[in-house]
Amino acid sequence: MPGRDAPTTRGIRARLTLCAAVFFLLFAAVMGRAVQLEVLEAGRLGSMARDQDWRTLDLTPRRGPILDARGLPLALSIETESIFLDPNSARAPRKDAQDARPLSARDVRRLARALHLSVGEIKRKLALDRSFVWLERRLPTAEAEAALALHLKGVGSIKEYRRYYPQKQLAAHVLGMVGIDGSGLAGVELAEDTLLKGAPEQVHGIRDVHGRLLFEEPGLPAGALAGATVRLTIDATLQHVAETALAQEVHDARAKAGMAVAMDPRTGAVLALANVPTFNPNAPDGPLAHLRDRAVTDQFEPGSVMKCFLMAGALTDHEITPSTLVDVKGGVLQLGRHRIHDAEKPKADEITATQVLATSSNVGASRIGLGLGPARLIGWYRAFGFGEKTGVDLPGEVAGVLQNPARMGDVATATSCFGQGMTATPIELATALSALANSGTLMRPFVVARVTRADGEVLFDRKPEEVRQVVSPEVARTVVSMMEAVVRRGGTGQRAAMPGFVVAGKTGTAQKADPLTHRYGDQRFASFMGLVPADSPRVVVYVGIDEPQTSHYGGTVAAPVFREIATAALQELGVAPTQSPNPLAVAVAQQDAAKEDAQTVEGAALDQDAVDSTPAPKVGEGALVVPDLTGLSARAALRALASRSLEAHLSGTGAVEKQYPAAGRRVAPGTRVDVVLGSG
Question: What mean pLDDT do residues 480-485 have?
Answer without folding.
Answer: 96
